[in-house]
Specification:
Strand order of the largest sheet: 2-1-4-3
Radius of gyration: 12 Å
Number of helices: 2
Helix content: 10-25%
Number of strands: 4
Largest sheet: 4 strands, antiparallel
Length: about 80
């Protein structure tokens, strides 16, 4: 499953974990403007930093309310959990 993770900028601790439904590598590429050709590893098997300006675009794939927190950093990635 794809997840958006939220980390506190000061402590770097995980403070939020959002399951992304119906997400795919193609959608991640489109939102982030990244491609497999730009990196050594494919989109689906690595974590990606998500700029604050793009984080809210992942909310459409969540079953819960998402509130952007400017005191946090976001990453998206695929987990086999």
């Amino acid at each position: 499953m794809w997840r958006l993770e939220k980390f506190d900028k000061t402590t770097h601790l995980l403070v939020g974990d959002y399951l992304l439904h119906n997400m795919s590598a193609d959608i991640v590429e489109k939102i982030l403007g990244a491609t497999d050709a730009e990196h050594e590893l494919p989109i689906g098997i690595r974590q990606h930093d998500v700029p604050l300006s793009k984080a809210s675009e992942f909310a459409a794939f969540m079953d819960e309310i998402f509130i952007l927190d400017e005191n946090c950093e976001y990453e998206v990635g695929y987990s086999s959990d």
